[in-house]
Amino acid sequence: MERKLEKKNLRKKFLKYTIPSVCAMWVYSLYTIIDGIFVGRFVGPTALASVNLSMPFVNFIFASSMLFSTGASTIIAIYLGKKDYKKANETFTLNLISIIIFSLIILIFSLLNLEKLALFLGATPTTLEMVKEYLKIIISFNGFFIVSYCLEVIVKTDGFPYFAIIGVCLSALTNIFLDYIFVVKLNLGVAGAAYATGISQVIACIFFLVHFLRKNSTLSFVKVTFDFGILKRILSIGVPDCITEASTGVVLFMFNQIILRHLGENGIVTYSIISYVNTLVLMTMIGITQGMQPLSSYYYGKEDTDTIKKLLKMSFKTVAVVSAFVFIVVIGFSENIVNVFIKGADAELFNYSVWSFKIFSTSFLVVGYNILISGFFASIEKPTKAIIISISRGLVTIVLSLFTMTALFNDTGIWMATLVSELLCIIISFGILKLNPLKELLN
């Protein structure tokens, strides 16, 4: 009876953190998806392709935030588990100072190399000016992107997961409203979409900062000396999740280049739709993982091996159910989803997009397991194992799969490559997990 009660309590805690995490990641996904819908419908396919070509840089910004936020969240949770509030507050403050400095470096370097960056991302003569216009605005707001996401993650670690979802929902509603005003009413095109996204991040940033200035927050800002040891610890833990998010941008970049070569700009329109939905699926899996991580880190701090085992099994079951549900929905409503982005497009482009989308969607069945295992290793301060999985998934297997499948099956192979890549990585992920019993991992 006592064991059942413990399991029920753990499930409640898991859901308490996972549901807000998933919802928050959905909302973050909606920033780019909403931009895509407004741009695709009210500006045109060329503008949609331009925004998609800019997306690897947006992924880079979010990856930068994950580099800091995951590590800081893990370390803070471990200190809270040990009741060491002084160290938790010092880590929190040092992390925020570091990301502000980092965002300023991104701002200066990117603006000085704007055209080179646009061309590197694959801008064509047709799309170059739109890509530059969109990027310039996003770059200007990058600090708010990084700080707001990082604070949203740490708010959950602070014990306020539902406050986090309120903040991101407020930001999302701002984004939708401003997209309508700037893109539809004022006809500002891709610049309007970029301004809407940037301003919405400012709102989120202010909202979360206010939380940490209130008395009911466990964490607070304190005076700190710059400790490179803590910063190194934060970054080493954050690298796996950073690679997971950055890999989305790398994959998007690689797909864009190969699609331009094989299919032209119409192919970019097709992949734009696929990548928006793929981002939503990836963010769902990252959300489940982030729901597990604070609890896993907390029990790691308490050295409670049995609870961590139960938590990991619970997370696997959640990924399995969600993966199957997402796949069924996508297969059943492919035409409707494609229609949201390119309503009124010519029949050939529409039908090709639906066909490609269905092939690509098979990867949704397996992607969550790799993200979860990598995130688990990060949560118990085993970053090397997490990095191996993240690099395998984000760089090695996808490069091998994309070039091999394209060579064998032409454009069909492009849409099959992600499934093959994730399957190869699953072998690596479960192999590492099986070779490292949990008790050994916690030593």
Automatic annotation (TrEMBL):
What Gene Ontology terms for biological process does this UniProt record contain?
response to antibiotic
Superkingdom of this protein's organism: Bacteria
Provide the GO MF annotations for this entry.
antiporter activity; xenobiotic transmembrane transporter activity
Q: Where in the cell is it found?
A: Cell membrane
What is any Pfam family matched here? MatE
Q: Which GO terms describe its cellular component?
A: plasma membrane
Q: Does the keyword Transmembrane apply?
A: yes
Protein's name according to its UniProt entry: Multidrug export protein MepA
Record's keyword annotation contains Transferase: no
What's the source species' lineage? Bacteria, Bacillati, Bacillota, Clostridia, Eubacteriales
Q: Give the membrane topology.
A: Multi-pass membrane protein
